[in-house]
Amino acid sequence: MITFGRRLVSLAAALALTAASVSSGPVSAQDAPFPTRPITLVVPFPAGGPSDALARAVAHGMAEKLGGTVVVENIAGAGGTIGLGKVATAPADGYTLGFGTIGTHIANVALYKTLPYDPLTSFAPIGLAGTAPMLVVVRPGLGVSDLAGLKAHIAKNGAKTTYGSAGVGSIAHFACVILLAAMQQPATHVPYRGIAPAMNDLVGGHIDFMCDQPTTALAQVTSGKVKAVAVLSDDTVPQLPGLETVAKAGYPQVSFRSWSALFAPKGTPPRIVERLNAALRATVAEPDLQAKMQAVGVDLPRGGDLAPAAVSTLIADGIARDVPALKALGASLD
């Protein structure tokens, strides 16, 4: 006969087994650890360019902070729209991220009638990764030393004057279009598959000028292979203290900075966005990375600039300011 005391023991044991079964069961999605597998960061431009360099530096730091792996995948083409289009349709689980820029999220709105993503609604911003001024650099022997000289050269030679870029819709293309519009001068665009081959042709004297970020242009300028004639910003470049700013040259409306930011597909859980944002914040706060990026003219964000909402504001403001100007120039690709 089973006594009342024995029944209590049996009931307690059963309850203990039930509790153990519950506690060892599947973890809810809300509480699941992240990441548990490699994260892919899609860079929608060729390897070796300024966006790629910053993306790889950020990916390395974030991997350490997350305790996982972040793999950079270059999916170039169509001004970055192909790569970011893939990000926009990827599962919203935090394992596929995109590296967007002022070109992919603002210039492309004017350049393409249709995009495979909406810059404002297709993504969940993670945070700003970095900003940089744009340099106007000319080929050796062009014989100009400032924007006034470049304008005079274009006025004399017209569409025979050529400028290179990393491709249609790239930051380099965007910057030069705005500059030429302000100068009211024509020039022929020569798009390349990346900024490196464009710079090679500038050094070789095959094109006349280009707009480029310090990340890739500074080494060529300081070595004397190309000449910097202006910075498209109100701020001077520490490495080139005597370089004329666009405002001093008489074109304050051209002043802008390129930017890059991390994005996840829309619908990514807030806790994952927060986790990724925390890793990004910790990465860009590292003194070693700050020093490395500052040496090549890139400013890493701080404080409120790192908030996801700040990226959304940056995009909305840029679209409102720059897209009408680009469309007024008749800028279009299709």
From TrEMBL:
> Which is a Pfam family this sequence falls into?
TctC
Query: In this entry, which stretches build a coiled coil?
Result: none
Q: Which residues cross the membrane?
A: none
Q: According to the UniProt entry, where is the signal peptide? A: 1-29
Keywords annotated in UniProt: Signal
Q: Which family does it belong to?
A: Belongs to the UPF0065 (bug) family.
Protein name (database record) = ABC transporter substrate-binding protein
Q: Which organism is it from?
A: Rhodoplanes roseus
